[in-house]
Amino acid sequence: MSTRSDTFLSTILATTRATLDATKADVPVADLERRAADHHPRGWAAALRRQAALGPAVIAEIKKASPSKGLIRAAFDPAWLARRYRTGGAAALSVLTDEPYFQGSLRNLELASAAAPLPCLRKDFIIDEYQIVEARAHRADAILLIAAALSAAELKRFAEAAHELTLDVLVEVHTADELAEVLAALGETGADAIGVNNRDLKSFDVSQEISLALVDQIPSSVVRVTESGISMAEDIARLRKAGFDAFLIGESLMRQPDPGEALAALIGGAISRRSASEALAAMPNVGLDSDFEFSDESGRPLPFQDDLPKEK
Q1: pLDDT for 3
Q2: Which is it for the CA torsion 198, 43, 164, 222, positive or negative?
Q3: What percent of the chain has pLDDT over 90?
Q4: Domain ranges in the chain?
Q5: Residue numbers annotated as active site
Q6: For the chain, which terminal residue's Cβ has fewer other Cβ atoms within 10 angstroms, N or C?
Q7: How far is CA 172 from CA 211, 224, 225, in A?
Q8: 158-189, pLDDT tens digit by residue?
Q9: How far is C-alpha 152 from the geometric centre of its chain's CA atoms?
C-alpha cells in the first residue's frame, strides 16, 4: 500500500517493529489468546451506526500527547476520561496505545474499556497479527489499520485476522490513491469503517477539504469516518451534511478542563445547526441565497430582512 518513503511514519514504524520484537519475546501469544477469550467485543462499528441514525456519532479519543503537538494533557486519567466522554454523548472511544510517540499504553486501553460500556478502538501502528490478539487481550473492540503503513496483502491479512477475533476494523486513508488501493484490496465489505485523516502525514497540515473530496468515494456499506482537525460544531454539521457518519475527535477535547462537558456542548451545537439547516431546506421558496439568517445562539431563524423595522 505504501512505498514507505522517507517520512516520519517510516521512523515510527521502525520503532514499532523494534518494540514489538521485544514484547513478543517477553509475552507469548498463547498468553494473549487466553486473556483475549475473556473479553467479548461490544460492536464498535454497530455502536457508531446506531448513533449516526439519531445524531452525530462521535469517536472520542483518549490521547495524552502527539509527535506534532507534544504534551496535550498533563492531568491524565483514562478511566475518568472514558466516563466523562460517555456522559458527554460519545458513541465510542479511541485509545492511543503507542508509547514512544503518543505516551499511550495498553494499560490505558484496559482502564478506559473497563470504566465505561463504550466500545474501544485500539489506535496504534498495527504491523503484525500479534498486535491484533494483543488488542483484544487488553479489552479493545476494534483496531486501526493505516493504509500508508501497510501493503495490500498485509491490509487484507490483518483485517481477516481481526474479524476472526470478532474485532471491527477501521482503515485509515489520507489520499484518493490510498482509498482506491484499500477498496481494491478489501472490496466494499472487508473493512467495517473507513476513516479519512485530514492531517497530511508529511507536513502535518490539517484540512477538512481532504474528507470532503473523498466522502463520495467511500462505499455506503461501511461507516464513513472523518478524523483530525474537528473542533467546532460547524465542522461536524458541515461534514455530516457531506455524508460522514462518525467523527473522531481528540485534541480539541483533551485540552478542555472537562472533555465530557466540552463534547456535550459540541454535539448539541452540531444538532442545532443541522436542525436549522433542515428547517430552512424544507421551507418552500426559500433558498440558501435568500436573506434568511440563523441565530448563532439557538439555531432558530431570524426574520426576513423585509420584516425588520426600516431605518428612519
Answers
A1: 42
A2: negative
A3: 81
A4: 10-252
A5: 61, 63, 123, 172, 197, 227-228
A6: C
A7: 11, 10, 9
A8: 999 999 999 999 999 999 999 999 999 999 99
A9: 22
